[in-house]
User: Fold this.
Amino acid sequence: MAFGAEELRVLRRALALALHPSPVSDEDVQDCLRLADAVDEAVSESARLRAFLLADLARYRAALPGTATGYLALLADVLGAGYQPDADDLAALRALRGNPVAAALLERCRTVAEQAVRARLAGRCHASVPAPRALVPASRTRLRALPGGRGEAADRAAPKPRTPNSSPAKPAAPEPSRPVPTPAEVFPPKRRPTDPPHQLAAG
Assistant:
């Protein structure tokens, strides 16, 4: 696929708009749409041409050895377009090994087929091997809150982990038991009010 000078101008303008968005005129929009339609049409035409060539190659191969010249020319063309030769092509080329062109194409097809097999095997190996996990350190410093925040209070309240060599903490000694008070101590008797002092009569 080759672009003309006008198509390259439109493509450059479209790339500039994609990298640096800016107001676009109606003419630029129409040019981009026409270029997109042309690219889609070229891709479709390439797919149709490829399908036609492969069908023609199969017809020439079925009519071998009488069509050897046309078959070898077509095979060289489709190989250049990325065609992957199959078992029928390899068998046909082995039968035509007396032809120098067929012998050269046979070596080329073997190389292409081996590369395709290696690529498939490599893809399967990559798919079967799980992606390595990110290694996380065994111990990571915990994030702490600001001084006086919840993190500091929680650290003080949380029990400290015990190391394997440290001895278990001894239980605290129980407080000495206090004697049970008697009811008289809890409810002391009420004191009787004292009589007021007698006043002496005057005279």
Remarks:
- The radius of gyration is 49 Å.
- The helical segments are 5-19, 26-62, 68-80, 87-95, 100-128, 150-157, 183-186.
- The mean pLDDT is 75.
- The chain has seven helices and no strands.
